[in-house]
Amino acid sequence: MELTFYKYQGTGNDFVLIDNRNKIFKNDTKLVKQLCDRKFGIGADGLILLENSSIAGDDFKMVYFNADGNESTMCGNGGRCLVRFAEFLGIVKNSATFTAIDGKHEAKILSDSISLQMQNVTEIKQIADAYFLDTGSPHHIVFTDNLKDLDVKKEGAKIRHNELYKKEGVNVNFVEQAQDFLNVRTFERGVEDETLSCGTGVTAVAIAAHFSEKVSTKNVAIKTPGGNLSIQFEEENAKYHNVWLTGPAQQVFEGKILC
User: Fold this and answer.
1) Mean predicted confidence (pLDDT) in 212-217
2) Burial class, 258, CB count within 10 angstroms (exposed 0-12 / middle 13-18 / buried 19+)
């Protein structure tokens, strides 16, 4: 089968995107893993299908797969890239509404950025000096003073596979506080390595930093190895709502692959 695909990236978090409104792509773990492979396939942190939605008010549906081929939880940067893709396809113009595995999302479309509304966060757990919360995907947050020299793959894998998260695993974010922003590096489950950026991860970091009183602002600037993102939210009694993730999302190339 000859498959048309599009490659998108959001702050270095890259994805294979497929217009699957006609159901030409059948979910196949082995095939998804092959397409995401950087040596034998296209290469990406994940693969996303844009499909028709049966839910009233939706412009489309998002189906996300990790690079290991398994369907996974929400991907924030992937969602922003998918909105840009929907704009390219002519499905949406200035705004979008879609449903992903964690529920409905709204998005605002600008020429240089996509803002994506994330799920509310009502529970944050403190685990020793770290924090755990779910922003559509589960995240473990560690604040550190030596982010530059940290072996993120090694240290992230230790936490991802420890007894606390043995059943489903977890994404691990290491954070260093600067004067006006937070530096973040992320180990992603499913990729099993450090990625240049993680949308649900930086959202979790911003909320954890506010919850722990490391920042007082409700508009948090984040710097990742792949670029800059910002998170805005409202908070009441340690419950976070109206959460928005904002940053660039760009098409890299279009191609065809035999599979």
Assistant:
1) 97
2) exposed
Which pLDDT band holds residue 92 (cuts at 50, 70, 90)? Answer: very high
pLDDT in tens, 31-69: 999 999 999 999 999 999 999 999 999 999 999 999 999
End-to-end CA distance of the chain: 5
Q: Which CA distances in Å does 56 have to 52, 61, 93, 97, 117?
A: 11, 11, 18, 10, 18
Distance of CA 212 to the CA centre of its chain: 23
State pLDDT tens for residues 9-19: 999 999 999 99
The span from the CA of 182 to the CA of 46, in Å, is 25
| Catalytically active residues, by annotation | 75, 198
Report d(CA 201, CA 223) in Å as an integer.
12
CA distance 77 to 118: 11
> How many C-beta atoms surround the C-beta of residue 15 within 10 A?
30
